Amino acid sequence: MPDARTPDQRTPDQRTADQRTADARTPHDRTPAPWILTTTDDHVTHLTLNRPEALNALAPGQRDELIGLLAAASADPDVRAVVLTGTGRGFCAGADLRGGAPAGERVAGDVARTLRLGAQRLVAAVLDCEKPVIAAVNGTAAGLGAHLALACDLVLAAESARFIEVFVRRGLVPDGGGAYLLPRLIGPQRAKELMFFGDALTAADAERLGLVNRVVPDDDLPKTAREWAARLAAGPTRALALTKQLVNASLDTDRTTAFAAEAAAQEINMTTADAHEGVTSFVERRGAAFRGR
After folding, report:
1. Which pick of 149, 197, 277, 281 has the fewest CB atoms within 10 Å?
2. What's the CA gap between 80 and 131, in Å, rounded?
């Protein structure tokens, strides 16, 4: 699949990252393979990380491209669900630390700024996407890659998948929203266990802890992801977006605020064509045909 971007549309950083990818993959013709394979069919956008030789570790340019694709899917009324997965043996091995800035004197604020504009912005793009996002975790999900998966609304995992809070192994603090996401999913003590030890968590154990919705045989993962996405794409898209917003905000608000947000969301939702169709179909005792409007 050709890269849709032309050289003059990319930033210097992206051109540099493109060149590094081309050097690694095709040293003779220098033709960069697409970082992310993107298709949209039947109202579902499929985003496939495509650096299998690096277990889909995210280079800065690839990360920024993924943020843009999520924002585009969120804004496109014809997209009603998103599936995120990877090629090869890895879902995403985290941030690609190779080829970064050379060691030297660090300026105060540089690291925090890099995280705000990079890893945190990526995780926020998933959380804020107005369409339901399914992670189809096909292999290793480590560091930022694990947080990218766990930020998704639904998580499917192949039996061979592994989740690793790898930061402690490198002497680092978990970033990319890990200390925000994990306690909300499994509680603070379980989250600390994963982050303090950095042990690889099998797909079965991740399901047992509540990090994964379902574990399926490796060969069944694409089929199951397509089936789940098709069900979401046939649903009331705006109602799902408002539901996602309410659930994501629920643990950060008190009851009074949560109840007010719920009432406001339902007020907004009742103006949609899908809400009218849902109520009408109930009265007429027939199945609803939602159009995502």
Report:
1. 197
2. 6
CA–CA gap between residue 148 and residue 146 (Å, rounded) = 5
Q: Which of 87-101, 204-218, 253-267 has the lowest mean pLDDT?
A: 87-101
**Contact (Cβ atoms closer than 8 angstroms) between residue 93 and residue 143:** yes
Cα distances from 164 to residues 56, 86, 153, 205, 206, in angstroms, run 15, 16, 19, 12, 10
Residues 183 and 244: their CA atoms lie apart, in Å, by 18
Return the domain boundaries, the chain.
35-233, 237-283
Q: Which residue has the tokens 């609304």?
A: 153
> CA–CA separation, 236 vs 218, rounded Å?
30
Considering only residues 18 and 88, tell me which one the structure prediction assigns the higher pLDDT: 88
The CA distances from residue 50 to 22, 149, 158, 214, in Å, are 13, 16, 18, 24
CATH superfamily of 35-233: 2-enoyl-CoA Hydratase; Chain A, domain 1 (3.90.226.10)
Q: Regarding beta strands 90-92 and 133-137, do their DSSP bridges make them parallel or antiparallel, or are they unpaired?
A: unpaired
Looking up tokens 């306690």 gives 183
Mean pLDDT of 27-45: 81
The amino acid occupying position 19 is: Q
User: Is the torsion defined by CA of 63, 130, 143, 203 positive or negative?
Assistant: negative
Tens digits of per-residue pLDDT, 124-172?
Answer: 999 999 999 999 999 999 999 999 999 999 999 999 999 999 999 999 9
| Whole-number pLDDT of residue 30 | 52
Q: DSSP string of 215-280?
A: EE-GGGHHHHHHHHHHHHHTS-HHHHHHHHHHHHHHTTS-HHHHHHHHHHHHHHHTTSHHHHHHHH
* pLDDT at residue 107 in the model: 82
Spatial CA neighbour of 290 closest among 109, 48, 80, 46: 80
